[in-house]
Model the fold of this input.
Amino acid sequence: MKINLRFFASVRELVGTAQEVLEVSAPLRTVGDVRSLLIARGGNWESALAQGRALRMALNQVMCDADAVIAEGDEVAFFPPVTGG
Done:
């Protein structure tokens, strides 16, 4: 499965990239699964996306929660609760 990842504001600064195409063979079902997979990278990824951290998520440019179901080619975005212009 390929999904497009986008990172904004402080999340982008911590992970060091604004976007990435993620290709995985393991089945990912939800936005929360994607978050967990990225946290497992450790280091800044774990810090930026940690489960206890206030974080907003969007699926195909629509705000969502961790239970939102993803499909091939979707865009998943992560950003802090308040972002600047």
About this structure: Residues 31-39 form the longest helix (9 residues). The mean pLDDT is 93. The two ends are 32 Å apart (CA to CA).
